[in-house]
Structure formats: C-alpha cells, structure tokens
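Re: the pair you flagged

First of the two:
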Amino acid sequence: MEIAPCGIDCDTCDQKPNHCDGCHALSDHLYCPDCEIRVCCLFDRKLSNCSECSDFPCRSILDFEADPWDHHTAAVKRLRRMRTC
C-alpha cells in the first residue's frame, strides 16, 4: 500500500494512474504538484507521511480533514491510526 503524505491510499485513488503517479513519484505527473502538505512532508521534513511528524496534526492537516471531501477525512483518520501503532 502506497500512502501519500496526507494519508490518501494511492493504490485506491481514482486520480491514479491517469492523472497522477502518486505523491512519492519522481515525475511531474502529479495531481497537485504544489500541494503544501506534500512539499512540507516529503521535501522540508524528509518524512514519508504526516503521521511521522512531531507537529501532527498541524493546521494544514486539520484543514484538509475538515474540508468537504470524505476521502480526506478518511485519509487523516488513517494517519491517526498509523500514529498510534
């Protein structure tokens, strides 16, 4: 299972493979290449997902969780579960 920094399961995401290679890909074929969560997690903090961050849950993750998309809420729930393991 490939987990994006935000907690989305890339293997089940409907944007992959037509619109995205996944947040961990080294290509330019990304749904949102400038995603602030992705940039912070992968490039600024050098983590594989936000559950590994000492600042989790940060404002960006809380805003992502609270937006109207159910799969974002599920993604952050996944990160919370990963954090407790």
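Second of the two:
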Amino acid sequence: MKKAFTLIELLVVIAIISILAGAILPSLSRAREFSRRANCLNNLKQLYIAFSLYVSDYDGYCPKVALLPSINKDDPSLVEVFYPYVKTKKVFKCPSDRKSYFEKEGSSYEYNQRLNGRKVGRGRMFSLMGSTRIWVMYDYEDFHGPGIRNFVYLDGHATHEPIAQIED
C-alpha cells in the first residue's frame, strides 16, 4: 500500500500556510514602509546639507525657488538650485511618492516659502520659533500615512511626525 496525503490533509496544510502568510505579510509591508520612510529621511538630510552649503555660498541667504515649478516658471525649481550640491536627482524622490509629484514637479519635497530669499538668523520668525521648529523641507503629500510627513528643520534634524503638530 502506497503512502500518500489525503485531500483533507492537503487542504489542512494549505489552510495553515495561508493563515501564516496572512499573519506575516502585513508585518512585511510595514517593514517595507519603514524602510521607505528611512530612505526618505535620508534624502531630506542630504537636501538639508545642500541647503546649508547653498546658504554658506550665498552669504547666509536662503534660496529663492518656485513652490510648484510646473505653475511658477519665473523662479528656478528646487532641483535646479540644489543639483550642483547633490549631483543626483534620486535624492529629490521620496520612495513612497505614489502620486507622481516627482514626475510633475521634479521633487517629492516642498520647500518652506517663508525662507525664500531671506537671510538665516534674521527676522521675527527666526527669533520667536528658533531653528528647531522651522522646517526647511517636507513631503508634498502624506506619503507615509494619513496626516504624517517627513520633515527636515533649520537646525538639521529630520523627523517623521503628524502634520497637525507642525507650525509654519
């Protein structure tokens, strides 16, 4: 007599495998999103370094760039201004950008328009808030979850936090 699996045993094994896969896959997708978020934070840190190099090259003045380069053609885009400092366009794309901001605007990140052309360290905004709460760049959209974005601040720290806690 041959030893073989019965149909019931085979169905039980398939059911167990599907239950295990169902339990493991969500955690794998969460891990993948954490990886994308970390990559995005790294991109923002590199763009901050480009920002600080630009500011040091231009006597403390922040770059004047277009908020939406597809609409405002008068000012240069963030990519045009920072490209000489980063040498690759990959840092301008958030890996979680599924809304194609990178393709439309050249960057997945928005620049703080209140810094546009201003000298760092001057004005009421800088003295009241301090450099730890003034953001330089952040995600255009909620790429990393509802109401949550990655930010890089004027003091150089990058963080992942709810947008409701951010002050302009």
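Residues 36-165 form one domain.

-B.
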